[in-house]
Amino acid sequence: MVSKKNGVNTVLSWKTLSDFEKDFRTMLKFDKFTHFVCEIKPEYASHILKYNFKDNRTVSRMVVHRYARLMDMGLWMLTSAGMGFNTEEKLVDGQQRLHACIASGVTIQQLMCFGMDPKAHLFLDIGKKRTPADTAKIEGIHNGGKIMAAAKIVLMYDRKNIRLTDEHVNRPMIEKSWKDEILKHELVEWVHEHVEIQNMLSSSDGLYQSFPPLTDSFLLACHYILRWYNPIHADDFIHKLARGEGIFKEDNIYRLRAKFMKAREGKNRIDQSWKLYWV
User: Fold this and answer.
1) Average confidence (pLDDT) over 23-36
2) Contact between residue 83 and residue 111 where contact means Cβ atoms under 8 Å apart
3) What's the predicted TM-score (pTM) here?
């Protein structure tokens, strides 16, 4: 075992798998809570998983893929979240990080805690998860929940991996396929780089809340996307769609509004409504 400094942290590392296995075996026998920052290679992760708690929760492919992407991109960071082992020598926390380490093939630094009470797993993952809105608030983004939801729709559209359906309209933060998931840090970076979407919401005077069949974040995202093609027509279209002012029964926007209203009542599909307007 080798100790080295990483800033203020002392990081434990090993030259070979056999060296790691020997020290890891000793660590598992700690009967009091003890913690270390360790350098974990993919082969070490595979060995650790042999001690997985038999009743541990099911591994989420989406979470593993998310972590693996961060590791592969060099964005994985040492945090207070780590791996936990109880006095019965079982892994009770951190299995998804280990699977991600293996999947990415990247060596990571990880907090490892030993000597946990055998019932400690009952108190893991019981807190409120941090939402994109929580992250936005920390980042100083006003109306963060709406902005982050709109940003996700814009990014999904921009990556051409979205089909606008009633599911996206009513739940704009819907999770995509685990292969196409947009990571939280990507949303934050995009919002910081595209301040205009924040300005659009702050100066909207309630525009995006004017049409209940659509969420304000969805309308904001549509407005932002349409401005790419024709800013003047986009503004006119969204104002008429949201508020229904200055339109007549013969107008396509009038028909579109009616389609959305019916869709809200479960009588039609919203994705077909978009086709109606552009025909």
Assistant:
1) 94
2) yes
3) 0.58
